[in-house]
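Minutes, project check-in
Item: structure for the 217-residue chain
Input as provided by the requester:
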Amino acid sequence: MPKDVKGEAPPPGRRRRGAALEAALLDAAWEELVAVGYHDLTYEGVAARAHTSRTVLYRRWPERRDLALAALRHRTPPLPPPPPDTGALRTDVLALLDQITTRLSAITPVLEVLTDSRTRGTDLADFLAERSREDDGGAMAEVLGRAARRGELDPSRIPARVAALPITLVASGMLITHRAPSEADVTAMVDEVFLPLIAHYGRAGSRTADSAADREE
């Protein structure tokens, strides 16, 4: 339970009802998630932060994962705008990864919930998986589409796993460490891993050239 929360009742004349009460409860649950993480989230802590009783919370969300899911739906930031068009694949990818890193840093509680085996096969896990799919695929597809229109690559030759690699590496690293990668680490990953793979798979005529080389061997 946070030390600065005393669990006092709201001042007289400010009794919360309906949507206002539910929003206050979910704000408190989100703040408690940020403060202590999913593993240590308790009804007692949320109730104290919201200046209410545990019964009020149990009546609405009888399981802890239900409370966490409601808080995530209430407070998870909206999907970010499309990454800026910088004029080149390299800088587009770096801009996208900066957006994703910033977003994941803002939803640290989600990262901890994702690693908790007790949430697997639940509505909470389904919600997180859906948000992850929404975050990942469309933005990178847009970045690669721009690069194709500029003549930098042929997206039809790039395996889906290669296209998803930068986001996968950044997100996986943050799941493990619970902290954002440094700018130098992200740049090195793009320059030393992703772009060489794009050059290998995405260059025009790569399959034809590779097939010819295989025949010569």
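Outcome recorded: Residues 80 and 171 are 15 Å apart (CA to CA).
No further action items on this chain.
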